[in-house]
Amino acid sequence: MTASVTDRQADFSTADPLFDRPSIEIPGGWHQLDPLWQGDETAVQQGLPHQVLAPPWQMLLLGDGSPTRHLQLLTGEPTEVDVIDMSVVGPEGDAAPESIAMVPGPRLRRQVWLRTASGQRLAYATSWWEASQVDEYLQNRSLPIWASLARLRTELYRDVRGVCYGRSATLETAFGETGPLWGRHYLFWHRNQPLTLIYEVFSPYLQRHLGPIAPSDSPLIETP
């Protein structure tokens, strides 16, 4: 049985007690990038020119490893989550990437900040789940998804479906960084079935650990 939505909601304004962060309202939706450029599975498989996206950033965005683990290794701190919304969503698609059609309904949407233990926001993530499975796979909602599934010894395949470069005034303000921002979306597969769709956007703060996103003389990515 799915737990009450009201038990899962947390306001952006109370998400980071360690830092004076902007209070950001969620008007019944979620935060996606307004794309300047988008790449499909072909771009993910081939990779992007290094003058557009530096190799360390390509490993983070286009690789199939755990971002939770990568962020911990980069920062030297445990990666923690602030759950900012868990809501049942309608069957229309929730303006999510088209892969959401592969996640059975009724669906529940989960939004989180990924941050260091000391409170630095590193990424924003939205995931969509079959509502009846949330309690089984997210038994401890204070843990990142990968940590929750690893505890259950769940065998997974991360299927990166797309990458995006774009703007979001809301996320730029929340990160305290200037965009454009890079994001991606992927499916988790379990037992040959799609388990959840995840959309992630990473903070430019990570340049302190990964280096510049692109060379200083990088050409602008043109809108197709």
Q: What do these coordinates show?
A:
The protein is of the alpha+beta class and 224 residues long. It is 20% helix and 30% strand. The chain is built from seven helices and seven strands. A seven-stranded antiparallel sheet has the order 1-5-6-7-4-3-2. Strand 3 and strand 4 form a beta hairpin. The chain is globular and about 45 Å long. The N and C termini lie far apart (45 Å).
* Low-confidence regions: 1-27
Count of helix runs: 7
Number of strands: 7
The value of Rg in angstroms is 17 Å
Structural class: alpha+beta
Instruction: Give the terminus-to-terminus CA distance.
Output: 45 Å
One letter per element, helices H and strands E, the order comes to EHHHEEEHHEHEEH
Name the strands of the widest sheet in spatial order: 1-5-6-7-4-3-2
Helix content: 10-25%
Strand fraction: 25-35%
The average pLDDT is 79
The backbone outline, from C-alpha atoms, is globular
The description of the largest β-sheet is: 7 strands, antiparallel
Structure summarized in a few sentences:
The model is unreliable at 1-27 (pLDDT under 50). This protein has 7 helices and 7 strands.
